[in-house]
Hints:
Layout: H1 2-21, E1 65-66, E2 70-71, E3 77-78, E4 82-87, H2 94-99, E5 101-108, E6 115-117, E7 127-133, E8 143-149, H3 157-160, E9 167-174, H4 187-193
Antiparallel strand pairs: 1-9, 2-9, 3-4, 4-8, 5-6, 5-9, 7-8
Amino acid sequence: MKKVHFIFLAVVAMACTVLIACSAEDGETGPQGPQGIPGIDGQDGLDGTDGQDGTDGQDGNANVIFSNWMDADWNVQDDPRAKSMNILITEIDNIELRNKTLVFVYLQQWGTSSIYPMPNAGRWSNTLYSYTFGNNGITLNGITVTLISTNGVDLTEFQYSGSRGNRFRYVLIPESAQSGKLDYSNYEAVKSFYNLPD
């Protein structure tokens, strides 16, 4: 029995000696492992649908009717001291023109860059440029522009000729159009308010 006990103690002592003799240091780093397989990129998402376009806003001259500048063309009366021309209006009928529309006619003349509201003498002392509109006569529908000599002297070509730069432009403001507190005798104010082209 003592012999077995002795052998047991010898084995335990030997095991302790082996454990104490082992180094506490880690072993060398092993070689790097193989590279992993790269992942696959995900697919791009689909583009979203475009949004709807917004509606266009109204122009500054919505519902306002205006002409280009028209050279004088005395197609109704062409006498030495009195002239008249008819401007046909096709955008609205004569009844609406006469009863439900503000009508303005402007004048440019030879030798000046000024624009005059009619009726007006313009730059001359012996003339009167005027207009009527919405007449009941069959041949005078639209706007009729008249030029007369006010002193009994014949008119000169500088006062009446279209080739000399005498020309007219109308601006019609129907009942449905936006109107403003404007001095309609001031052409530049009217042009700016209604965004009229030159």
